[in-house]
Amino acid sequence: MMLKSSVLALAAVGLVSAVPPAIAADQPAGGGYIGASLGQSKINDVCDGIVGTCDDKDTGWKIFGGYQFNRYFAVEGGYVDFGKATATDVSLGTPISGDAEGWGLFATGLAALPINEQFGVFAKAGLAYTKADVTVVVGGVSVSDDDSGTDLVYGVGAKFDFTKNFGMRVEFERFKDVGNSDSDVDLLSAGLVYKF
Question: Which region is the signal sequence (predicted)?
Fold first, then answer.
């Protein structure tokens, strides 16, 4: 999956670099932007081996800002909240429950391919510092742990500009090994963007 996404990102960068210089010269210089997105997160592999109930999906959201150098390239960073996964089980007659939640800070490069003046698609890749907090309750005794780490984040999306300053985007992102674990988190979100 990671190799496939990397190939897609490289293909998008290749398409962007193939834009004729005369066309690129006519495009606006770009500028700063801020935005917020809301959607569904999924913590992969967290339910593996659990016989009882497990919910690995929750509401995820992020706030972000960036600088668009031109219509084809931007850099952005922000904060993302992955929500919480919850599980309950029974082992040797003892009830067990647990939850895992996380957040992260990210910085990415974004390669865009405009389809027309308002609509375009993009691919992005970069790094994310993420933290995961896990709490397990066994027979009424609670144990908590947390860990953090830095790993890859990448994704694809589409954007639509309502005006010169306001637009929206829909995107899918994967955050690798969140909190230095073996679990990736996927975020499918939609949001609004303000350009200034």
Answer: 1-24
Q: Which residue has the tokens 């960036």?
A: 66
- CATH code at position 112: 2.40.160.20
Give this prediction's pTM. Answer: 0.80
- Annotate 1-15 with DSSP letters as a single string: -HHHHHHHHHHHHHH
The range of the structural domain enclosing residue 71 comes to 2-195
pLDDT digits (tens, 9 = 90+) for 107-127: 999 999 999 999 999 999 999
Concatenated DSSP letters for 125-164? EEEEEEEEEEEEEETTEEEEEEEEEEEEEEEEEEEEESSS
Read off the pLDDT band of 25 (50, 70, 90). Answer: very low
Give the pLDDT score at 181.
85
CA distances (Å), origin 53, targets 85, 95, 132, 136, 155: 11, 12, 21, 14, 30
Number of independent structural domains in the chain: 1
Best CA proximity match to 112, nearest among 13, 190, 188: 13
CA dist 194 to 31, 44, 62, 70, 163, Å? Answer: 11, 32, 15, 16, 10
